[in-house]
Protein 1
Amino acid sequence: MITLSNLLYRLPGGVAQGLIWGIMALGIYITFRVLSVSDLTVDGSFTTGGAVTIMCILAGVNPILALLISFLVGILTGVVTGLIHTKLKIPAILAGILVQFGLYSINLHIMNMSANVSANPDRFNLLISMRDVPNAILIGIILSIVHIIVLYWYFGTEQGSAIRATGNNNNMALAQGININNMKVIGFGIGNGIVALAGGLMAQYQGFADINMGRGAIVIGLAAIIIGEVVINFIFKKGCSFYTRLASVIIGGIIYYAAMVFILWLRIDSNDLKLFTAIIVTIFLAIPNLNIKKGGKQNVKN
């Protein structure tokens, strides 16, 4: 039944998932905005993170340690993509597709050739669970803040600044003596590490890892980034700090999933969610361009 109370009941769950996907989007932000390359590895590394986390928990590993292990494995997937791109001179987008394609089989092997592996919250001590949404939101907020602080600090270091310089201008970075290939590999590694950690969080939240859980992750991540940028640019018209831009990615993830909850609340067929995702992303992509055109017309009149 479509009622306001039903919508309010569903929203917290959307916020919890939005926080997790927002963390995932931070990983995509590193390659998409900082390095200025498109990395499609994330659809596979997100699943890898979920698979590793669940299998570790089933083996008796602490859920927090399981997330750290998934982060390290995620770094490995990103490093492989970076090496294929830099050493074999294969375009980044194709390198990501190749690694993502290969990860499908690897993820199946991680899960003992099972397409779905579950960890029942009644039997295992999970960090977050959809059975306790308030706690999931709290954990999500804490982890989001930790990620933002660490990334803000890291990209202020010499190595982090070198990665940002590589993304801004390869030739200028090379002229400054920066090994741009190494910086790309490191950036790919860190980005996919964060994506895999988010995959581990999602697996714990829903109580299982699925071979297809990462499908469309790149689109959701880009949606979170773009939505967050539109919102933050509207609020800070004169520009904002790197710290604020990182926070906007989390905000974008929450807004995106809140929109998904609203669409489902309207009882629209869930099979149409991808269509609505495409429409939402298109709208938010168009907003800045429409504002520029509008501003341009006003400038001509003046």
Note: The chain has one domain: 4-287.
Protein 2
Amino acid sequence: MAFLYALPGAAAEGLIWGLMAIGVYISFKILDIADLTVDGSICTGACVCAMLIAAGVPVWVSVIAAFIAGALAGVVTGLFHTALGIPSILAGILTQLILYSVNLSILGGKSLAAIDPRANKLIVHMSDNPRSIVAMVIVVAATIIALWLFFYTEVGLTIKSTGDNPHMSRAQGVNVSLNKVVGLAVANGIVALAGAMLAQYKGSANINDGRGAIVIALAAIFIGLSVSLKIKPNFVVSLIGVVGGGIVYYIVYNFVILLGLKTDYLKMLSAIIVAVFLAVPYLKAEYFTKHTSLHPNAGGDANA
């Protein structure tokens, strides 16, 4: 019964992290960049949103400001990588370190900023999970539709081609560097948007909110894609699958907590989940497919 009571909260929080995973999907799957900026940009979105709401700024304006702040963080990473020639993974780490100081400054030197749900009409909050689920479904659906429209424009298609084959794209006259910067800006903007929703849901923004966020996002991506790619492997279905992966992850997360696992081990659990979903395709190709192809009856009798 305790697990059933926890399901609405798990679904609401899973939708928020699924939104965050969409941003990571853009950088990781579409741009083919392992961007570690997200551990900082999700916290930036949370801090900006929380401080603006506390200052009396309307919630939707605060959310838009959070998106813009995250997009700027992505631009910084993109410029580090393209203009300065820093490897993408190191560029993300550098921006993440910069954002830690920036986030502290946004919070006024404090480690936490609270949001009063009674004084502000928040989009989501843990005190009303059914309403939060409906609101997040609308936000996630709007984000997926916007991305679907964007990535089928000329700019969006060139960003996709940059991730698929940057050398061929460059030979066709595509500005690969600009596309990487724009793609990282969009990705981190969505991550910061998820951070803004997370701050509202929890009722606070913490300087450590983004720690390990990339692992949760990757878990959601690989859980979701392992299912969605078997249904219909297209862009929209993949994004829906990623969000579903976030929900599944948090349902499992809550189930494990209810079983009595110490919270000290939850980050380790996240890493193990990601490792398993990363290893399964390799192990399947390495052992199952190879052994099947070597079997004398594999593929049937050639003379049949």
Note: The mean pLDDT is 88.
